[in-house]
Design goal:
This is Leucyl/phenylalanyl-tRNA--protein transferase. Its EC number is 2.3.2.6. With 246 residues, this protein is of the alpha+beta class. 29% of the residues lie in helices and 23% in strands. The strands form 2 sheets. Strands 6-7-8-9-10-5-11 form a 7-stranded mixed beta sheet, with helices on both faces.
Length: 246
């Protein structure tokens, strides 16, 4: 991935506190950093996601805004279920709920150690901002329980027919994968265009996510955002594993 620092003239502009405008992400570097500063108000965050931009920064740094090229998307229906994972799904040992424990999910995502990473980018201000978006009906969680104990999950935002995935955690084998499978199935049934997984990871590619050019992502995002949103609580959403037909 090309670096924004390859050219001496490249400058990252600060955001205004008096406007929610962002630079055009189509002209950002491949790395994707296109602005810094601003705040994490709901209006700014929603404006950013609608433009294919998301915040990602470490505690003590200014807020950094990104739109990398390429982008990683999972199209519902293309989730890859391997034989070992199919056995987990068939076992029924995990139960899935939506929007019953959003704050717990985001806090687990912030505290679970991750290989090669010191600390977490889900800093307290980020947690507060996404909890507020959840209360406003934009952010949602998928929770995985084993014997009524929360053992895995994920969270993100939904607008139009796009789910913007943010982070996941797992305290038990395959629990976060079950959450992702449940999300993919439910959103597929509801006509969602794709789940935005942001940046490429081998784990997500192994589950069926595809790497697409940023311009294509932004085109598809514009189309998906024109469709009706599922604003409000998702607690009434349900999921039970159904064997795929071959």
């Amino acid at each position: 991935m090309a670096s924004m620092f390859d050219e001496e003239e490249y400058l990252i502009p600060p955001l205004s506190h008096y406007s929610y405008s962002f630079p055009n992400p189509r002209y950002a570097s491949d790395e994707g950093l296109l602005a810094y500063g601003g705040d994490l108000t709901s209006s700014r965050l929603l404006t950013a996601y609608k433009k294919g931009i998301f915040p990602w920064y470490n505690e003590g740094d200014p807020i950094l805004w990104w739109s990398p090229d390429p982008r990683l998307l999972l199209y519902p229906g293309k989730f890859k279920v391997r034989k070992s994972f199919r056995r987990v799904l068939r076992s029924g040992k995990y139960q899935v709920k939506f929007d019953h424990a959003f704050a717990k999910v985001i806090r687990y995502c912030a505290t679970v150690p991750r290989e090669g990473q010191d600390g977490s980018w889900i800093v307290p201000d980020m947690q507060e901002a996404y909890i507020r978006l959840h209360e406003e009906g934009f952010a949602h969680s998928v929770e995985v329980y084993r014997e009524e104990e929360l053992v895995g999950g994920l969270y993100g935002l939904a607008m139009g027919k796009v789910f913007f995935g943010e982070s996941m955690f797992s305290l038990a084998s395959d629990a976060s994968k079950v959450a992702f499978k449940a999300l993919s199935d439910v959103l597929g049934a509801k006509g969602y265009d794709f789940i935005d997984c942001q940046m490429k990871t081998d784990h997500m590619v192994g589950l069926g996510a595809e790497v697409v050019p940023r311009d294509r992502y932004l085109d598809e995002l514009e189309t998906a955002l024109q469709k009706p949103s599922d604003l409000g609580s998702w607690q009434h959403f349900t999921w039970n594993y159904k064997e795929e037909e071959w």
